Amino acid sequence: MEKINARRIALDVLVDIEKNNAFSNIALQRALKNKEIEDRDRRFVTELVYGVIENKIYLDYIINILSKIKMNKIKLEVLNILRIALYQIIFLDRIPSAAAVNESVKLVKKIEFGATGYVNGLLRSYLRRMDELTLDKEHMDIAEYLSIRYSHPKWLVDKWLQDFGEVFTEGLLKENNETPPLTVRTNTLKTSKSALMKELIAEGLEVEAGKYTQEALHIGNAASIEKLKSFQQGLFQIQDESSMLVSHVVNPRPGDFVADLCAAPGGKTTHMAQLMENKGKISAWDIHAHKVKLINEAARRLGITIVDARCFDAKELDETFLEKADKVLVDAPCSGLGIIRKKPEIKYNKSLEEIEGIAELQLDILKNGAKYVKKGGYLVYSTCTIEKQENVGVMKRFLEGNQDFELADINETLPENLRTEQKYLQLYPHIHGIDGFFICKFRRVR
C-alpha cells in the first residue's frame, strides 16, 4: 500500500479550493474522508492547507519577486507546490528547510516533471536571499504593507482602516490568520458539561471550558472528531461560542413555537431545542434541500424531536405562519467576514459590491421574519460578519421601517463579561477570541 503523502493531499485540496471555489473545510473533509491516515498526518494536511490560504498574498509576493515566469503563466499545481514549500520554510520552524525543498521537488516530479528545475531553483534562491526579502513598513503605504503582511485583499484593508483605524485593523488581520480551537456544545439533553469533559479526556483529547457559555468546551488536539464515540452518541455538537450566544439571546422557553428562517446546518436550531428541553416546536427553514438534510441529521443524532425542517426560501412569505411564532431567528446570509479564521478563503472571494448587495437581501428576509412574530414576541437578527452595513446598518433600517417593533436590550441574556452599554452585541475575533458575530433583538409591541 502506497504511503500517504500529506503534501500531495494538501496540494489536491488547495487546487480544488481555487479551481472550484470550494470551502476549505468541505474540501478537506472530502479529501480526507475514508483515507487510512494517521491523526498526525491529518493535522499536517490541515495545517498546510490553512497556512497557505491564510498567507497566500504574502507567499505570492515572494514568488513574484523570485520567479522568471509571470504569476499568471505558472500552472496552478506548480504554484501551489511553491506556496506549500515556502509556507513550511517561512512559518513552520519544526520543518527543516532542506526537507521542505526536497519533498516539493519530489512532488513536482510526479505532477509536472518539466517544472522540476524551476521549482528547485526558485526555492533555493529564496533560501539564499531570504534575509533581504523582508517587507519595509517604513517605506510602504500602510494599506499595501498590511495587505501583503497579513494576506488580506487591499480593498478590504482600506475599508477596515477607514472603519476601525490602524491599530484595530492590524490586530484583526493578525488574529484572522490564527488557528482557533475547535469548540463544541454540550448536548444537555443527554449529558452534562463535566461528564462530557471526562468522556472527551478519556478519548484522548485536550479539553477546557469555554469563555462565555455554559455549554461550550474548547478542544485543542482534535483531528477526526466525527469518528469519536461521544460524537456518534450525540453528546455534543460542533459550534462556536458566538453562535451559541445567539440562541441564548433568542431565549426560547419549553413549549414555545420558534421559526428559524436560515437554519442550516442546524447548530442554532438544535441549541434552541436544548434550551427548550425538547418541548414545543421549531420550524427550521433553508433554501437548499441538501442543507435541510443536515439539519435533520443533526437533530436525529442529538436526540431532538421538536424540529420540523423544511426547504423554503426565506425571501418568500409563508402566509400560514403569519403572527404565529413566539420567537423568530433570522441568522441571515452574510459576507462571513467574521469567520475568516475558520474559512480563510472567504477574504479572497468577497467584494465591496457584494457586501452592499447582501445587506439588501438581509433586510428583505428580516422584514419577512417580522411578519411571523406574535404581538409581544421577539425577532432576533444575527450575522457572522463585522461589516457595519450588514449589522447596525440593517438593524437601523429595519427599525425605521417597522413601527411595530422596538429594539430590545439583550444584555440580560449575555454573560457579564460581554455586557455593554449598547442594547446589541458586536463580537470581534481579536478582542473576544471567538468568531466575529453581530446579534440584536426586536420586540413586537403592537
UniProtKB/TrEMBL annotation:
Function: Specifically methylates the cytosine at position 967 (m5C967) of 16S rRNA.
Keywords: Cytoplasm, Methyltransferase, RNA-binding, rRNA processing, S-adenosyl-L-methionine, Transferase
Active site as annotated: 384 (nucleophile)
GO cellular component: cytoplasm
Catalytic activity, as annotated: cytidine(967) in 16S rRNA + S-adenosyl-L-methionine = 5-methylcytidine(967) in 16S rRNA + S-adenosyl-L-homocysteine + H(+)
Annotated SUPFAM superfamilies: NusB-like (SSF48013), S-adenosyl-L-methionine-dependent methyltransferases (SSF53335)
Protein name: 16S rRNA (cytosine(967)-C(5))-methyltransferase
Keyword Cytoplasm: yes
Superkingdom of source: Bacteria
EC numbers on record: 2.1.1.176
Family of this protein: Belongs to the class I-like SAM-binding methyltransferase superfamily. RsmB/NOP family.
InterPro entries cross-referenced by the UniProt entry: MeTrfase_RsmB-F_NOP2_cat (IPR049560), MeTrfase_RsmB-F_NOP2_dom (IPR001678), Nop2p (IPR011023), NusB-like_sf (IPR035926), NusB_RsmB_TIM44 (IPR006027), RCMT (IPR023267), rRNA_ssu_MeTfrase_B (IPR004573), RsmB-like_ferredoxin (IPR054728)
Residue ranges of every copy of the SAM-dependent MTase RsmB/NOP-type domain listed in the record: 172-445
EC class name: transferase
Main subcellular location: cytoplasm
Compartments in which it is found: Cytoplasm
GO molecular function: RNA binding; rRNA methyltransferase activity
Binding residues for S-adenosyl-L-methionine: 262-268, 286, 313, 331
PANTHER family: NOP2 YEAST -RELATED NOL1/NOP2/FMU SUN DOMAIN-CONTAINING, RIBOSOMAL RNA SMALL SUBUNIT METHYLTRANSFERASE B-RELATED
Gene Ontology terms describing biological process: regulation of DNA-templated transcription
